[in-house]
Structures are given as structure tokens and as C-alpha cells.
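re the bet — no i am not wrong, look at it urself. input seq straight from the record:
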Amino acid sequence: MADGGNAPVIIKRKKVIVAGGHHGGAWKVAYADFVTAMMAFFMLMWLLNATTEQQRKGIADYFSPTIPINRVSGGGDGAFGGDNMFTDEMLAQSGTGVSQPSLGNEPVRVEDSAEADAAAAAQVAALRDIEAILMGQGGESMVSDQALRHIVTRLTDEGLIIELFDLPGAPLFIADSSEPTPVMGEIARVMAQIFGIVDSQVAVNAHVRTRSVLHLNYPVWDLSVGRADSMRLLLEGGGLNPQRMGRITGSGDRVPAIRDVTAVRNNRVEVVLLRADP
């Protein structure tokens, strides 16, 4: 051959593309996971706000692996057909059927549950209305500013708690006695008036502060009970039906409101509008 039989030299250049450059897709996967997690989080927040305690219990049991043997809730379209294994129909049967049938174990109707939820919601709304009127939310309060500074409220499972407390230089009872001051009388009259919005039972609980060991004869129990009873008399004198008084309690100095047990802030009376049983 003219070129001496040598084959031509072929140079092949391979273009290497580094994965994950500015066109890589790994960040998209991470972003999708983030968006999914946020969606689940907001769905959880919505469920907590939009469901009742009973509904949340049912949702929790749905994701529980012990659904078939849960006494409270559970079931579905599976083996137990929306029931649990502790009902009469699901218990192991012998020749005579259920050995210990339950009596009066009627299923709760959806209508009854809805009515109970509606009644509970109406009751909470009424308590919030009383709280708003007393504290002057959205308008003027029915008590003076001097009296309003002695009041805090909170809505709990027990009911609406109205806490009346001493301030430095401004007590609600004359020192070391159960005789109320004019400010306490004003607050009690207003409370008795607005309590007419509901027919709930009323409870009164009085607390006093701890005194130093120098006050050996400081009657914390007698004083707290006396102040609770004095508050009862003020409410009834303001027009509250005595039949609505559910209980009066004196807790002495056993439940301080703040860390400093000797502070006057611990001298307080709690008036509770109790929630009615559904």
C-alpha cells in the first residue's frame, strides 16, 4: 500500500456531562417533599380546629393498629363492619349465644350527638357573651375601670372562671376579715345581673395569701371560707337565685396564684359559672 500499510489513527473525543448541574432535578424532589410535608401540617391544623373531641378520637383510632379491640371507637367496612369486638354481636358465642348480654346498650343516634354538640356550642357561646359583657370587649364594661382592674376571666372545661383578686393598696376585703369593700360589692352586683343570661350553677372558691411564721394565729381556712360565703351573700343580694348556688369552698393558702406565696395577689375569689351536663 502507498502508506506502508498503517491504519489511520482515529481520535474519539467523549463529552462528559456532570450530573446535578444547574439543570439537575434533585432540588425538585426535595421541594416536593417539603410541599407535601407543609400540606400535611396545614391539614392537621385544620382538623384540630374543625373537629370535636369525639371526632378527633375517631380519627386517631382510625390510624391505630388496635382498632378492632378498642372499646371507645373504631371499625369500618372491614371484618367488624363498623363495630368493635366487644359488642354483643361480636362476642364469642356458645350454644345459647352471648353469655352476659348488656342491658340498655343502645347505639347513640347521629341526631342525638348533633343535638348535644349544638347544645354545648350554645352554652359556650353564652359564657363567652357573659365574659365579653363583664370585660367590656367591643364596648364599655358594666363595671368601673377601678373595679375592672381586679378581674381576669378564663373559659375552661369546668366553665367560665371569673377571678377577683387584691391589688397592692386596693384590697377587695377589709384586712384579715371577710367584710367586702365597696369595690367588691360593685363587682358582685354586676355579676349577679349578667348571670341572668344563663341558668348555670354557680360555684365560689376563695383563697388567701400565706403569712409569715410570726402570724401563728392567722386563720387561713376560716378566712377563706368566710370570704367565699360573703361572696355568696353579695351575689344573692344582687339578685342571683339562691338555688343556683352549687358550692362554696375555702382553699386557705394552699393554691397560690403566683410564686411569691405572701403576695397580696394570692388573696382572690374565683366565681365559676359551671357548664351544664350535656
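see?? Residues 67-72, 90-99 have pLDDT under 50 and may be disordered. told u. also Strands lie at 151-155, 159-165, 202-207, 245-250, 268-274. so pay up
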